[in-house]
Amino acid sequence: MINNDEFRRWSHRTADWAADYRAALNDAPVRASLTPGATANALPAAAPELAEPMENIFADFERIIVPGITHWQHPRFFAYFPSNAPAPSVVAEQLVNAMAAQCMLWQTSPSATELETRMLEWLRDALGLGPHFSGVIQEAASSSTFAAILTMREKALQWAGNSQGLSGQKKLRVYASQEVHTSVDKAIWMAGIGGDNFIRIPIKGVLRGMDAAALEAAIVADKAAGFLPAGIVACIGGTSVGGTDSLRDICSVARRHNVFVHVDAAWAGSAMICPEFRHLWQGIDEADSMVFNPHKWLGAQADCSVLFVREPQHLVKTLAIQPEYLKTQGADGIINYSEWSIVLGRRFRALKIWFLLRAYGLEGLRQVIRNHINWSVELAEKLRATKDFSITTEPVLSLFSFRHEPSCVADLDGHNLALVKAINDDGRIYITQSKLDGKAIIRFQAGSFEMQHSDVDVAYQAITEIAKGLTA
Ligand SMILES: *Cc1c(COP(=O)(O)O)cnc(C)c1O
């Protein structure tokens, strides 16, 4: 229990700790290397009965917790996708923490709602999207996609799913390539559509995406067999190797058959603030909904996912529920964003977008993203030119994959997985593996706001040196 004076002192101490932590990152190993159970064993089995001094709690935080943290803000975090949190975003979150407002309705914090609306207009325009899109902030791409899948379900069932359930209805069908994120599978399960009705359409290539003719044939065949095609999920910048669909082709199939199109651009969407990359999602204006995560590459720290929809009334018709205690009396024309969301309670997430966009300017953010892409392409070219390395998928924005294939090694899959492990144990950089056509590959993405050009050289050094060591 601490009083307001102590709250002030500990808040200062925390701010100092945060700045020191960030300053030391460049010299720290990126990934935490603990054995499973090490943290759990350092924690008492039961909660304390009596109050403990903050001094002890803070000391244990530094002693027990920090060594088990993987440093996502590290300049050489090249694994997964980034989860950036530059200073303006952190400062905004500290203010949000202090106020701790719950922003489910307009009246539970009018400025939070109205800032959210304006920030989504800023982001929509910054991405070059048409003015017919409206947006809402969700906690994750998984929930944005779930909201979109529920909307496509309800639209296909003419809004009968929520009231009648699915058992008496025609079986719904949803289409996507193999490249979409598992959050789509999960949304299909949770929406009651059933994994068996999630139909995978073959791709023509990582960057060419779903075969539109095969997609159309599947829809026609399903209709003939008595199914109800509800929607298509397209992906722009898939998680494994950046798989990207051709939205133009998909949307024209969708229009002919009156099905909903949801686009998952969770990672790649942020890059669309740079006009020169928008060819990747040509046709986006024809989609019904789109998710992108400012908490990945744009720098608005987690959690911050944006769902844009063409027809917000359809989203609201699917998700709004208004018991008496949630009615807002006497306020017409207002937005209650909980009616656009899966969850009722909402953190104030728009503030960090406002701080971020103002502190960097769109031009500042474009420069960050352009650097990542240029530096990643530079590394891909260096590896391509290095003996025994091959580029397995070409850079999609700042993501590419490679493989080390020395002739003296028989088990190349095992060798590449061992290489990933050895590189991550080394600590200079952090990367992850994936699979392509059944083969183990190594993914590299550049996306940390702290990254400098010289970090590409460190990455090249670490990868080539450790690969050589493994085969020596
Ligand atoms: C990261 C990612 C997701 C999942 O994002 P969450 O916000 O963690 O739910 C979904 N799709 C793609 C393409 C992603 O990169």
Describe this structure in words.
This protein has 472 residues and is of the alpha/beta class. Among the domains are: 4-84, dopa decarboxylase, N-terminal domain; 102-347, Type I PLP-dependent aspartate aminotransferase-like (Major domain) (Aspartate Aminotransferase, domain 2). Helices cover 43% and strands 13% of the residues. The protein has helices at 4-24, 38-41, 54-65, 87-99, 110-126, 141-156, 161-164, 182-190, 212-224, 247-257, 294-298, 312-319, 350-384, 412-426, 454-471; strands at 134-138, 172-176, 198-200, 228-235, 260-264, 289-292, 305-309, 389-396, 399-404, 432-436, 439-445. The strands form 2 sheets. It has a 7-stranded mixed sheet, with helices on both faces. A 4-stranded antiparallel sheet has the order 8-9-11-10, with helices on one face. Strand 4, helix 10 and strand 5 (260-264) form a beta-alpha-beta unit. Helix 4 packs antiparallel against helix 13. The longest helix has 35 residues, at 350-384. The termini are far apart. Bound molecules: pyridoxal-5'-phosphate. The site of pyridoxal-5'-phosphate (PLP) has 13 residues, from helix 6.
